[in-house]
């Protein structure tokens, strides 16, 4: 855990950092969050994460706690104080502190801003080299999954179901039998004819920043890319499958429920995407904390 946290304008020891008991994030899950990877002290795809944070705030009608430049400064200082080299910065913005009542509080109530850091997150070398299993289950989340809301109870239950089944992730399935995304990741397959397939952006899935980078890298590398829904049956019969997020890059999936994907080992396209993404975070994806 981080030694220093940031809470509403103050850097505090992580062990005592807290928000008020009537913070709407605690009582109503009335807030949004963002997770930014840090590699060698530099943020990865920070501009994309800040843009998504701003979009979530707009969709939730939560005021921005500070300008983007100030947010970048706080993140940089938090990383410095924690001597973080490789890990993540976690950002959460709640609607603020007010008496418990469902309607929004008055406009003068300021949003709450919390930041913490963690080091050493990501999959193990074994998971990367051997791939991981996933399970499928009905998607029971709310209808605005495009907002990075802290209302994650269905995701937590899905993750626990995966954990209890000995799987890495739960891929969630809509009422028509199509996979939406994982409990905390985007879902991908390589079709039988070699196309890279992932669900298109709409209210059903989160616009993953790593997803965005992987799509751009794949297209630049000449891969055939299809943004379309795919069924559980198609995923089980696919040549390859993988899952992606800020902390995972492209993590190979080698089993879906009881079905082995292809020959049960990470596929060549997934390995290629990992190589491309490694170059991305060592190059264009590695940003400065403050824009020039």
Automatic annotation (TrEMBL):
InterPro entries: Aminotrans_IV (IPR001544), Aminotransferase-like (IPR036038), BCAT-like_C (IPR043132), BCAT-like_N (IPR043131), Class-IV_PLP-Dep_Aminotrnsfr (IPR050571). It catalyses: L-leucine + 2-oxoglutarate = 4-methyl-2-oxopentanoate + L-glutamate; L-isoleucine + 2-oxoglutarate = (S)-3-methyl-2-oxopentanoate + L-glutamate; L-valine + 2-oxoglutarate = 3-methyl-2-oxobutanoate + L-glutamate. Its cofactor is pyridoxal 5'-phosphate. It comes from the Bacteria. Its EC number is 2.6.1.42. Pfam families: Aminotran_4. Pathway: Amino-acid biosynthesis; L-leucine biosynthesis; L-leucine from 3-methyl-2-oxobutanoate: step 4/4; Amino-acid biosynthesis; L-isoleucine biosynthesis; L-isoleucine from 2-oxobutanoate: step 4/4; Amino-acid biosynthesis; L-valine biosynthesis; L-valine from pyruvate: step 4/4. One of its GO terms (cellular component) is cytosol. GO terms for biological process: amino acid biosynthetic process; branched-chain amino acid biosynthetic process. Keywords: Amino-acid biosynthesis, Aminotransferase, Branched-chain amino acid biosynthesis, Pyridoxal phosphate, Transferase. NCBIfam families: PRK06680.1. Belongs to the class-IV pyridoxal-phosphate-dependent aminotransferase family. Acts on leucine, isoleucine and valine. This is Probable branched-chain-amino-acid aminotransferase. It comes from Roseospira marina. The lineage of its organism: Bacteria, Pseudomonadati, Pseudomonadota, Alphaproteobacteria, Rhodospirillales.
